[in-house]
Amino acid sequence: xxxxxxxxxxxxxxxxxxxxxxxxxxxxxxxxxxxxxxxxxxxxxxxxxxxxxxxxxxxxxxxxxxxxxxxxxxxxxxxxxxxxxxxxxxxxxxxxxxxxxxxxxxxxx
Amino acid sequence: xxxxxxxxxxxxxxxxxxxxxxxxxxxxxxxxxxxxxxxxxxxxxxxxxxxxxxxxxxxxxxxxxxxxxxxxxxxxxxxxxxxxxxxxxxxxxxxxxxxxxxxxxxxxx
DNA sequence: TAAACGCGAAACCAAATGGTTATATATTTT
DNA sequence: AAAATATATAACCATTTGGTTTCGCGTTTA
Lengths: 109, 109
What we know:
CATH architecture of the largest domain in chain A: Orthogonal Bundle
Shape of chain A: elongated
Largest interface: A-B, 32 and 31 residues
Number of strands of chain A: 3
CATH topology of the largest domain in chain A: Arc Repressor Mutant, subunit A
Distance between the termini of chain A: 15 Å
Structural class of chain A: alpha+beta
Order of helices and strands of chain A: HHEHHEEHH
Oligomer: homodimer
Number of helices of chain A: 6
Largest sheet of chain A: 3 strands, antiparallel
CATH class of the largest domain in chain A: Mainly Alpha
């Protein structure tokens, strides 16, 4: 079953600095929306929209807990970016990249 | 002298699939604009705009040669993405990532 | 039970994005 | 010199993006 035409791909998701900061925050801890919002100078509604985009890219997920919605990180989709990048690494590679590429052959599946 | 607030960062530059395809094309060969355009179903003007965004991110550069403008790839700025990604790799890492991270310690500078 | 909290959803807005067509200019080519 | 080629630039357009404010609703807490 191939990917069903994802609405927001991971490349677009990480293109925004606010969203990258959200990812960093969630890499430390899972957090409710209000807590995430407190780290930015924008409204909770705006932050929620960023969270939705990240969730559509499956980089985060949220669970409802009481009146809070707690989001956590799922970094796996970043692997697509990593794979894409690996193609270009050979172009600016230093001497170690041959070994690194060999190591990465294992990667997925 | 720090980076002078780049107008288009590399994350935004690679967010668009057309621009990623341009990078792939230029990874094979340097090419004039018309040649690049022939690979897409959009106007030369539209392609030129993508080229400008990639050039602002310093991922490509163009030189004028006769009446043609020939673009070539400069993949080095992708290193910023790689660095960013490396922080998250530890979260989904398989057993090999420890070795890989050690290897990459050398990386830049 | 009333007030405060956390969130969702809708309506709205300005600016950026990704595209178009038209026109002009410099360089070959015939 | 005239025609064709390759590009640049400007004006325009629709949609997306990133933000806002407002209102309503379930969940705690006083």
